[in-house]
Amino acid sequence: MASAELIQKLEQTIETIPDFPIPGIQFKDICPIFLQPKLYEEVIADLAEFSRGKVDVVCGIESRGYLFGIAIAIALDVPFVLIRKAGKLPPPFIGEKYDLEYGSAEIEMKTGHLKEGQRVLIHDDLLATGGTTEAAAKLVSKQGAIPMQFSFLIDLKDLNGEERLAKFGAEVYSILKY
Ligand code: AMP
Fold first, then answer.
1. What distance in angstroms lies between residue 20's CA and the mean position of ligand 1's atoms?
2. Can you tell me the distance from the alpha carbon of 162 to that of 133, in angstroms, rounded to the nearest whole number?
3. More exposed terminus of the chain, fewer Cβ within 10 Å: N or C?
4. What's the whole-number mean pLDDT along residues 129-152?
């Protein structure tokens, strides 16, 4: 999907910070993308193309999933629904606990914002172990909507996140694989 040129530009732009936030983690910093508006536009166009005509709603995972997810939703002209870290949403909401590459966490989502049978794209900046996206897909499924697609800028493929998501039978797309 993404052109070789886009992949190369992103590889040159995304920074890898060793041993952050804990020893052994190679942290991928996507923030330099926002210093290049044209590059950001190309990323959104590529992610939107993957989902065009295939989803009714985009769900973005806090917080870096919002940076791209909202723009994807606008490009597709579909609603955007936030998946938040625990403790921030006013009720009513539902939650799901999960394990991270480092530590554990819980995410929450408002009830009543997704409609039964809606086809959902779940977007985040990066796929590591897949725990966060798996929990997000469970929240979507619990509300009768369908996790149809998952998209990411980056897949840390050695952590086998894609395998963990296979049970949802959804299409998975990552612009870059490390
Ligand atoms: P996971 O649930 O293991 O797939 O972790 C994915 C979430 O954690 C995403 O929201 C990422 O933003 C963040 N994350 C995990 N590992 C990294 C990493 N090496 N660099 C940057 N962000 C990461």
1. 11
2. 10
3. N
4. 97
